[in-house]
Write a structure and sequence with these properties.
Blueprint lengths: L12 H4 L11 H4 L2 H9 L12 H7 L6 H13 L16 E2 L8 H16 L16 E2 L2 E5 L6 E5 L25 H8 L1
Length: 192
């Protein structure tokens, strides 16, 4: 099996796409946030949208999809980036937050994290270094190296739930009810 041994999905994505609501757009409060807009304008090179999907061809293939609102929202996300079902930043959250953690003490884990960072930067999925301080509107969440199941190899974990001002704290549970957020193998099963 291509994606691994997981529970059989209840629905295929092709079926779900027929009735799924459009994916959310960036809320007006975020689009109009001066700090966020200044950072995006002054540092656009840090916020590339990278996908292996030929978006123009994908859009052509979806031209006769029966749920055009949903199809167009997916294409928009591939071009502009996806909004993660999050609410605008709560008033009690700071404009900028660094939840950085100390590097691991083990050499193997430190080397793994450096190598992963360098690979992600080379593939343009992580931004290159831009200085020691976060820019206005940015949040930095910790990364960890954890062992893969039944293996001596490590895997990278971006911990979006860490700390008092986590990114995941801005997502209402009901907004993602029913979504399986448990990695690529589960996603593959859902899309199958």
């Amino acid at each position: 099996m291509l994606w691994g041994q997981h529970a059989t999905p209840r629905k295929r994505f092709a079926d779900v796409s027929l009735t799924h609501a459009p994916l959310p757009e960036v809320p007006k409060e975020v689009r109009e946030d001066p700090a966020v807009n200044r950072t995006l304008r002054d540092h656009a090179h840090l916020f590339k949208i990278v996908t292996p999907i030929n978006v123009g061809r994908f859009e052509e293939l979806l031209a006769d999809h029966p749920n055009q609102d949903f199809a167009k929202s997916v294409v928009r996300g591939l071009r502009e980036g996806f909004w993660p079902f999050a609410e605008p930043k709560p008033d009690e959250f700071p404009d900028t937050w660094d939840e950085r953690r100390d590097p691991p003490t083990e050499d193997v884990a430190r080397r793994f994290l450096r190598d992963q960072r360098d690979e992600e930067i080379a593939l343009e999925r992580y931004s290159p270094a831009f200085g020691p301080d976060l820019l206005p509107g940015m949040y930095n969440m910790p990364v960890h190296a954890v062992p893969k199941p039944n293996s001596a190899k490590l895997r990278l974990v971006n911990d979006q739930s860490a700390g008092a001002f986590s990114l995941n704290a801005m997502i209402r549970p009901e907004a993602i009810k029913g979504a399986v957020l448990d990695g690529i193998p589960c996603l593959g099963d859902i899309l199958r």
